[in-house]
Amino acid sequence: MRSTNELRKHPAYAELQLSVSPAQFGSIKRLGEPAFKDPLLVTRQGVIIDGYARKEYADSLGISTLLCVELDISEEEALRVILNKHRHSAGWNDYNRIRMASRLKEVVQRRARANQQAGGQFKGSSKLTEANVRKEIARAAGVSEGNVTKVDQLCDADPEVLKALASGEIRIHRAWLWRELTWQQQQERLRQHRLRELKREVCALVHKHRARTEAEIKSLMPADLGHLIQRLSTLRLSDSADSESIPIVRIDAPGPIVFLTTELYELFSRNCGFSEKHN
Asked: 261 falls in which pLDDT band (50, 70, 90)?
């Protein structure tokens, strides 16, 4: 058991100001107390390798100790394990993993130069070293070398575009295609992209609502309108003998639409045996 005050973020995670995504935190929160049955994975120095969402959830609940499994490894090794474990985790997109893996650059460069010197070949050449560094970063991040190169070329991109990359709103290749535009032009491309995505989401929601409404109507209504009207005319507004019948009124409205009041629906449900599943 380790005190939550002893647990900290990996320096690369903190330096890049990464955080647990709302989706990650929400999934942990829905689990409730069982979320803490699995131990956090940490180094002996308290650097969190796996369990950032659980640590944040514990802090929100005021929990002071958490079950942990300790690994006796360095910060460099811890970073590699973090990248490997979160290769397919939500919130750890390719851009963020490349940024974290780039913190290994100096270590990889020193190792590549040492290998060159030991072999006695290509002394004074930086090309082989750069290729080795790019390959090592790509391997650690679990991405293609091409994406590593693209991220390197985005160092002068608009800050808003970089934020969109970090959040997963846009992909590396899209931002890379905008790299030679001015910041103002990049912002406009991002605005247009957001509008297209918003339109796509709205269309999907409308389509889903229409499909659900059509299904409900089919389950509620007889196929034949005349049969429906006949059934409605036999219903009474109340159980009393002198109760009025259901009024049926034609209105001048565009489109083939049937309006059903909540009161009529409830009355129809009681008299015609509709189940609550149609609500």
From this structure: confident
pLDDT tier at 278, thresholds 50, 70, 90: very low
Mean pLDDT is lowest, of 58-72, 88-102, 189-203, for 88-102
Q: What is the DSSP string of the chain?
A: -EEGGG-B--HHHHHTT----HHHHHHHHHH-GGGGSSPEEEETT-BEEE-HHHHHHHHHHT--EE-EEEE---HHHHHHHHHHHTTT-TT--HHHHHHHHGGGHHHHHHHHHHHHHHHT-STT-SHHHHHHHHHHHHHHHTS-HHHHHHHHTTTTS-HHHHHHHHHTSS-HHHHHHTTTS-HHHHHHHHHHHHHHHHHHHHHHHHHHHHHHHHHHHHHHS-S-HHHHHHHHHH-BSSSSTTPPBPP------SSS-----HHHHHHHHHHHT--GGG-
CA geometry: angle at 18 spanning 12 and 19, to 5°? 130
pLDDT tens digit sequence for 148-178: 999 999 989 999 999 999 888 999 999 999 9
The pair of structure tokens assigned to 208 is: 């889903």
At residue 104's C-alpha, the angle toward residues 165 and 17, to 5°, is: 40
